[in-house]
Structure formats: structure tokens, C-alpha cells
């Protein structure tokens, strides 16, 4: 606790000059220690003081002369607005908020794009089932399905445009040959319009995801360059998001950073008295991925130490 100048002035005015026999009731023990150190006034905290403060709050309009309940309510409302305004203003300057929202949206987009792409595969697969094996990548599959449309209309003239999408002449030729001998069912123009419209939405989401990842990379390079250089933008952003802010992450010890994201496994291990997890979100780092199985725990501990140092450099320097 820190004794504010306004509180010091109030206590100097209200308390008598001889303060040896004065005992001041304080709700916060740390504030009581600060008052004792600065003014030499004995302070008491505990149940009695809490009950007295509760009674004062409850009967405050009756204790203060000229104060009505309506005026007290207005004062409380103004204080609440002032506090909220200061809090919002403070949060505006916290740029790691943008990182937290971006990585959350990026993870959600990954799930949605994967779900929607599988829907396009199963939908268009009735018409052209051989395309699934030729084009395994989700975003590219949606682009190819939108480009082809009705497989019976695919010809040699479409080969050049197909090569631009798949960026492989052999794969484009394989798609063309598969379309001629496909065992898929015929599809109506109305069904095809709906498939193409949905594919267009998935492609738009994929393009937006790429732009969002670039935005996240630029934000991380501004806010946490050391952490980004060490562990990567995406993993670093996930650590910041899970901690709540860069400041919280910087305050965590390395042992907490090491298992950040594996809380369920940790509590399960403590409950069953089993082995605790060796890594959490930092498992997605390339350092741990390239390490041998027997060295993963050691590398994760070392990497967590460096992540803690990097986050403190980014936050406090």
C-alpha cells in the first residue's frame, strides 16, 4: 500500500496532534502498514473494522449532514462512470488486446475453414469424387471445385487456368483425365450454383485468414519482438492470450510458462498422483518438435526460461 497525498492531508486534518493513544481502523492491512510507517498512527484491521465500515456504508446518508440518498446515489454513479472511463482508456492503450483478439479469431477461423472445406468436399464429392485424392489441401480444393463447376464441361482449354490454381501442370492434367472417366453422379445447375457460392465463401475466409495472420505478425513484431523471434508469432500470441496480457505473462515464473495451456492435464495428474505434464502451448514450437522424445521435457524447460526473459524484456524495457 502507498499513502496518497490526499489521504495524508485528510488524516493530518482529522486526527489530533497527540496520536499515541489513537487507533485507526483500516480495511486494508497493507494500507495500515503504510499509515503506520508514514504518520506513526497505530492501525487495526479485522472483523470489527469490517463491520464498522459496512455499517458506515449502509447508513452513510444519515451520518453526513445535508446528504440525501439521491445525492449519494448520484455520487456513486459518477464514481462508477469515472472508474469505468479510466479503465477503458487504459485498455485502449494496451495493444496486446489486439493480439489476444487476433489469435482467438485466427484459431476460430482455422476450425471454421476446416469444417466448411470438409462440407464442400462431401458435397462436391458426389459429382467428382476423384478430385479429393488429387487435391488434398482444403483451400485449393475449394478453388478447384469453383473453377471446374460441372466436370463434363472441363476441356483442354481450361487446362491453363487449372494450372494457375494448382500450380502444377501434372496435377492439372491428372484432374482433366479424372474428370473424363469419373464415376460421380450428374448434378443439377441449381445444386452447382449453391456449391460454387459456398466454395466462394470458404475461399473468402481463407484469404481473410492470410491477411489476419500478416496483421498478427506485424502486431507481434511491434509489441513482443523478442518473444516473436524466439518462439514465433503464433505461439507467442497464444501464450499472451492464455495469460491474459503481456504483463501477466512477464510476471509468470518459467515453471508456469512451461505448462501454460496444460492446466487440465496438470490438475488431473495432481489428483491421480501421476506424472505432471512437461509442456503446454510451447509444445507447438519448432524447437520442441525437432527434439528427440527423451529431450522434449528438457528443451521445454529451457525454452520456457528464455520465453520468460524475452517477455520481460518486451514488457518492461
Automatic annotation (TrEMBL):
Similarity comment: family membership: Belongs to the NOP5/NOP56 family.
Protein encoded by which gene: Nop56
InterPro entries listed in its UniProt record: Nop56/Nop58, Nop_C, Nop_dom, Nop_dom_sf, NOSIC
Entry-linked SMART domains: NOSIC (SM00931)
Protein localization: Nucleus, Nucleolus
Name of the protein in its database record: Nucleolar protein 56
An example Gene Ontology CC term for this record: box C/D methylation guide snoRNP complex
Summary of the function given for this chain in its UniProt record: Involved in the early to middle stages of 60S ribosomal subunit biogenesis. Required for the biogenesis of box C/D snoRNAs such U3, U8 and U14 snoRNAs. Part of the small subunit (SSU) processome, first precursor of the small eukaryotic ribosomal subunit. During the assembly of the SSU processome in the nucleolus, many ribosome biogenesis factors, an RNA chaperone and ribosomal proteins associate with the nascent pre-rRNA and work in concert to generate RNA folding, modifications, rearrangements and cleavage as well as targeted degradation of pre-ribosomal RNA by the RNA exosome.
Recorded superkingdom: Eukaryota
Keywords: Nucleus, Ribosome biogenesis
PANTHER family for this protein: NUCLEOLAR PROTEIN 5 NUCLEOLAR PROTEIN NOP5 NOP58, NUCLEOLAR PROTEIN 56
Assembly and interaction partners: Part of a large pre-ribosomal ribonucleoprotein (RNP) complex, that consists of at least 62 ribosomal proteins, 45 nonribosomal proteins and both pre-rRNA and mature rRNA species. Within this complex directly interacts with TCOF1 in an RNA-independent manner. Core component of box C/D small nucleolar ribonucleoprotein (snoRNP) particles; the core proteins SNU13, NOP56, NOP58 and FBL or FBLL1 assemble stepwise onto the snoRNA. Interacts with NOP1 and NOP58. Interacts with NUFIP1, RUVBL1 and RUVBL2; RUVBL1:RUVBL2 seem to bridge the association of NOP56 with NUFIP1.
Amino acid at each position: 500500500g502507498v499513502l496518497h497525498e490526499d489521504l495524508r492531508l485528510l488524516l493530518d486534518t482529522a486526527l489530533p496532534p497527540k496520536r499515541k493513544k489513537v487507533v485507526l481502523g483500516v480495511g486494508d492491512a497493507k494500507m495500515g502498514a503504510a499509515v503506520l510507517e508514514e504518520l506513526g498512527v497505530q492501525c487495526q484491521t479485522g472483523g470489527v473494522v469490517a463491520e464498522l465500515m459496512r455499517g458506515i456504508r449502509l447508513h452513510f446518508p444519515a451520518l453526513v449532514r445535508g446528504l440525501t440518498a439521491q445525492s449519494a446515489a448520484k455520487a456513486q454513479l459518477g464514481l462508477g462512470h469515472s472508474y469505468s472511463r479510466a479503465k477503458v482508456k487504459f485498455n485502449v492503450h494496451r495493444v496486446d488486446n489486439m493480439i489476444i483478439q487476433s489469435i482467438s479469431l485466427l484459431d476460430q477461423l482455422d476450425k471454421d475453414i476446416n469444417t466448411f472445406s470438409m462440407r464442400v468436399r462431401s458435397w462436391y464429392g458426389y459429382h467428382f469424387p476423384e478430385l479429393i485424392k488429387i487435391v488434398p489441401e482444403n483451400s485449393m480444393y475449394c478453388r478447384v471445385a469453383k473453377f471446374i463447376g460441372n466436370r463434363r464441361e472441363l476441356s483442354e482449354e481450361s487446362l491453363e487456368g487449372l494450372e494457375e490454381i494448382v500450380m502444377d501442370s501434372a496435377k492439372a492434367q491428372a484432374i482433366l483425365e479424372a474428370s473424363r472417366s469419373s464415376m460421380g453422379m450428374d448434378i443439377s445447375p441449381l445444386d452447382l450454383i449453391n456449391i460454387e457460392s459456398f466454395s466462394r465463401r470458404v475461399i473468402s475466409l481463407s484469404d481473410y485468414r492470410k491477411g489476419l495472420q500478416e496483421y498478427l505478425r506485424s502486431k507481434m513484431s511491434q509489441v513482443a519482438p523478442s518473444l516473436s523471434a524466439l518462439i514465433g508469432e503464433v505461439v507467442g500470441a497464444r501464450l499472451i492470450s492464455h495469460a491474459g496480457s503481456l504483463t501477466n505473462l512477464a510476471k509468470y515464473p518459467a515453471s508456469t510458462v512451461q505448462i501454460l495451456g496444460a492446466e487440465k492435464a496438470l490438475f488431473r495428474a495432481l489428483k491421480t498422483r501421476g506424472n505432471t505434464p512437461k509442456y503446454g502451448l510451447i509444445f507447438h514450437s519448432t524447437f520442441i518438435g525437432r527434439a528427440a522424445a527423451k529431450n522434449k521435457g528438457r528443451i521445454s524447460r529451457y525454452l520456457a526460461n528464455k520465453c520468460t526473459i524475452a517477455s520481460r524484456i518486451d514488457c518492461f524495457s
